[in-house]
Amino acid sequence: MVQRTLIRPPSSRMGPISDSERQAAIQRSLVTGQYDKAVDRESAFEILQKRAAEAAQAVPEQDAEEKGTGWTLPDFGNGSRRGSGRSTGRSSYQRQSVTEAAIKSIVRSVGSTLGREIIRGILGSLRRR
Hints:
It contains three helices and no strands.
């Protein structure tokens, strides 16, 4: 069975537009003038390179200052020394080895199971009374 339908013909063009049509479309646009000027902002990569260069210049100055003291106390304040002998000012986070992570996981699971069983035992005895 055939039904009557309304089909809208395409409103696009199959070929390129002329330069005058392109300029007219640009002038009618709501964002005319906002994106006309090219802006080359400082990228994150450039910022990080500048920070790395500044840090590299600061390290020899810090080493010269530290050589004059003669000794330091580890883990006291921000001036603590880590493996390389430089003060970083960051936290003392060190990545766990596979063995340490496995032991930590086992202890956590045993502890939670033991705690659960103790709580069940206490609550079970209270319920029976």
